[in-house]
Amino acid sequence: MHILVINSGSSSLKYQLFAMPSDQPLCVGQVERIGLDGSFVRHQVTGADRLERTEPIADHAVGLQRVLELLSDPVSGVISSPDVIEAIGHRVVHGGESFASATRITPAVKETIKALFPLAPLHNPINYLCIEIAETTFPRATQIAVFDTAFHQTMPEYAFRYAIPEALYRQEGIRVYGFHGTSHRYVSKKAAAWLNKPDAKLISIHLGNGSSITAVRAGQSVDTSMGFSPLAGLVMGTRSGDIDPAVIFHLISRGYSPDDVNRLLNKQSGMQGLTGFSDMRDIRKAMEAGDQAATLAYELYAYRVRKYIGAYAAILNGLDALIFTAGIGENDATMRAMICNELAFLNIYLDPDKNTTSSRQIRDISATDSPVKILVVPTNEELEIAQQSYELLQST
């Protein structure tokens, strides 16, 4: 079964094509800087050289049409026509309380995605647009939505409710939704299988430009750091993470507009605000060059992660493994060490030599006698979307 996975952002479109049930993609690619100067496409058939071209991509409709051309190209393609694609799995950021699993897209589902635009104004409109374009570009394919928030729908009410008047939850939908759910589900499933323990107590730590941490028990999310929006929780590339709400009122009283504060906390804070850099690789370079602001930011970042690990270990009443994933989690050995080196009270012990090894496979970097395992699990959201889409179609 040929399943195309589309992961769309505000100016990007990533895709992978799978012949399910194989977990190896036939090809992968991305369209970047859509609607901007310097837009380009990358396309790589598995086992072949990568194709990369700079060309104007005016909008997502043009981008998806370009994807179709690349997929069916006589030289670089892997399909004979759009009709070969039997299903398209779409990453949709926000599903509210309406969706707890992969969902076949119908007019009613599309209306619900539209109704959630106010909760994810930067993402859901683009996700919706790509669904509509895909319906035209691949008219015979079944369209399926996989929601970032779905994995967290298993959280108990005492974990997802805020201590505010109930009417704000019932009428305005103000609650913890959580994000990065597709990634957390994928890596926690992989870790439980590796441990051969379906009921494992896990803490999944997704560290990238956006970062979140999730407590997982027996394959279900029981708490997560991102909240009503992706702003809450850990320190991130440009987002502040947790902050006293009174800071917002103070800034407004000092002349900042609500839009100013929103931009400040989402785009100008986090590591960017602390150091002038949002990319952890740049911060590492600055730190190694003796930049004190970079050193402080690096320590602060690790400190916030440790705080959540302690809290989630308490919530889970014990722990089988920590999972590090995403760009920083998978690749920054120094950050992993800084996070783990003061967790001995939780029986978490890192092996320094294992920690510096590199692999695209799941690996154990804990000390041999560490009761709690420390795992690095490369995430693969596109594969998870393909698998959920395939399982949905197989069951109906």
UniProtKB/TrEMBL annotation:
Group of enzyme by EC: transferase
Catalysed transformations (reactions): acetate + ATP = acetyl phosphate + ADP
InterPro entries (alphabetical): Ac/propionate_kinase, Aliphatic_acid_kin_short-chain, Aliphatic_acid_kinase_CS, ATPase_NBD
Major location category of this protein: cytoplasm
Gene Ontology terms: cellular component: cytoplasm
Active-site residues from the entry: 148
CDD domains: ASKHA_NBD_AcK_PK
Cofactor note: Mg(2+). Can also accept Mn(2+).
Keyword terms of this UniProt record: ATP-binding, Cytoplasm, Kinase, Magnesium, Metal-binding, Nucleotide-binding, Transferase
Recorded metabolic or biological pathway in which this protein acts: Metabolic intermediate biosynthesis; acetyl-CoA biosynthesis; acetyl-CoA from acetate: step 1/2
EC number: 2.7.2.1
A Pfam cross-reference name: Acetate_kinase
Cofactor: Mg(2+); Mn(2+)
Residues reported to bind substrate: 91
Site (described: Transition state stabilizer): 180, 239
Annotated compartments: Cytoplasm
GO BP term, pick one: acetyl-CoA biosynthetic process
Binding site for ATP: 14, 206-210, 279-281, 327-331
Gene3D superfamilies: 3.30.420.40
Gene Ontology molecular functions: acetate kinase activity; ATP binding; magnesium ion binding
Family indicated by similarity: Belongs to the acetokinase family.
Function summary: Catalyzes the formation of acetyl phosphate from acetate and ATP. Can also catalyze the reverse reaction.
Protein's UniProt name: Acetate kinase
